[in-house]
Write a structure and sequence with these properties.
Keywords: ATP-binding, Helicase, Hydrolase, Nucleotide-binding. The chain is an alpha/beta fold. The chain has 15 helices and 13 strands. It folds into 2 domains: about 200 residues, 3-Layer(aba) Sandwich (Rossmann fold); about 210 residues, P-loop containing nucleotide triphosphate hydrolases (Rossmann fold), CATH 3.40.50.300. The structure holds adenosine monophosphate.
């Protein structure tokens, strides 16, 4: 349902359903309405009537979880976790990974890709660990952000419960001495972000010569974040005869080059259907200036169906200020951005995930890769720098078939046409 017909008590001026008649030329916006470093994005790109669930082609899984060659321990933990039917990426990738193939998984976040690689890996190391007990340091999983690494670690722990398999989480922003201690305890699985992993290698605390399984998760994001050299250095230290699993939402020429050097005779599995953004109802909200934006945001948030709202801002300071402003106006809000310590971010994220606060204000980088269920609305208080960032942002809502809504603040039409 477009914004104009929304149940919300907030009805921002000018946000008309399906309105697409903004100034036709792709002029650059003046800096008076929030300075943007990225390219101008035409407001019509922020409007979309969501594809209704009924119009979507539902993926029919060829396997049930019990069809996969998993041991009873793994099967038990899948049931405990409550997964009933494999998602598309799980259905297609799990048998290949169990067979020992290198796999390129083209999948966005929210498709269940974590379980698609973690379950077969657990199966393999569990089986061998039971036989020989020699599977220490045998899995390395690299992810672009600390939060994503934490989420992978959480899934690893849940799915390996009762198997005496251990992991070490090696991410920046957290105490390195503790990670060194964890590494010395001979974990089976190492999960980390490239910068910290490299740091640990330099200190000779991390040796990768026994890695049998290497996972690169969200490889495209890792490249976006400038990790390419770190990744190459790390992967170079792992044995050539490892099994490599490579996940990315896109394949650019640089990514293809990495695939060619890192993977051996890979099989590609693609579950990318339409843009995730198609499932999200999107509309714009016009505002004259910063004060008007704040005022409008406060009115919108008072709307009754704004249950769990992720608000994006451009700068660390702006995000903190906005969150404080919302608190002063009686909303419960947390902020996550790069000026917060890792434990502060984790606390903020947890309170938002657990519905203790219902608004989280974030920068793009802080929110990357986060798995937060049931976000009802994404609000772009500041516009994203690129359309790709926009798609990542709004991908936080409308996940797993749930309906989601996204609103983007744009300057009022007259300003826009100037
Ligand atoms: P991911 O794409 O790995 O970040 O997963 C997105 C969300 O989907 C997570 O909350 C998972 O726990 C959930 N999920 C993954 N696979 C399944 C499944 N087969 N059934 C139900 N939920 C799932």
């Amino acid at each position: 349902m477009p914004y104009g017909q929304h149940r919300s008590s907030a009805k921002p001026r000018g946000a008309r359903p399906g309105h697409r008649s903004f100034g036709g030329s792709h002029q650059r916006r003046g800096s008076g309405n929030g300075v943007r470093r990225g390219a101008y994005i035409h407001p019509s790109k922020f409007i979309n009537k969501a594809v209704s669930q009924a119009e979507e082609v539902v993926y029919e899984s060829k396997h049930a979880f019990k069809d996969f060659a998993f041991s009873p321990d793994v099967q038990h933990n899948i049931i405990e976790k409550g997964y009933k039917i494999p998602s598309a990426i799980q259905d297609q990738a799990i048998p290949l990974i169990l067979e020992g193939k290198d796999v390129i998984g083209l999948a966005n976040t929210g498709t269940g890709k974590t379980a698609a690689f973690i379950l077969p890996i657990i199966e393999k190391i569990h089986a061998k660990n039971k036989l020989s007990g020699q599977m220490f340091y045998s899995v390395l999983i690299m992810a672009p952000t600390r939060e994503l690494a934490v989420q992978i670690d959480e899934q690893f722990r849940e799915f390996s419960r009762g198997m005496r398999l251990y992991s070490a989480l090696c991410v920046g922003g957290m105490n390195i001495d503790r990670q060194i201690r964890d590494l010395r305890r001979r974990p089976h699985v190492i999960i980390g972000t490239p910068g910290r992993l490299k740091d640990l290698m330099k200190r000779s605390e991390l040796k990768l010569d026994s890695v049998s399984y290497l996972v690169l998760d969200e490889a495209d994001r890792m490249l976006d974040m400038g990790f390419i050299n770190d990744i190459r250095e790390i992967v170079d230290q792992t044995p050539r005869d490892r099994q490599t699993l490579f996940f990315s939402a896109t394949i650019t020429p640089t990514i293809q080059a990495l695939v060619n050097t890192f993977l051996n005779n890979p099989v590609e599995v693609s579950v990318r259907t339409a843009d995730t953004s198609e499932h999200v109802e999107q509309d714009i909200v016009e505002a004259r200036d910063k004060d008007h934006k704040l005022e409008t945001l406060v009115t919108m948030l008072a709307g009754e169906d704004f249950d769990k709202v992720l608000v994006f801002g451009e700068t660390k300071f702006g995000v903190q200020r906005l969150s404080d402003h919302l608190e002063h106006n009686g909303f419960s809000s947390v902020a996550i951005h790069g000026n917060k310590s890792q434990s502060q971010r984790q606390r903020a994220l947890k309170s938002f995930k657990d519905n203790k606060v219902n608004i989280m204000v974030a920068t793009d980088v802080a929110a990357r890769g986060l798995d937060i269920p049931n976000v009802s609305h994404v609000i772009n208080f500041d516009q994203p720098a690129t359309y790709e960032d926009y798609v990542h942002r709004i991908g936080r809502t409308g996940r797993g078939g749930a309906s989601g809504k996204a609103f983007t603040f744009v300057p009022t039409q007259t300003q826009n046409r100037r």
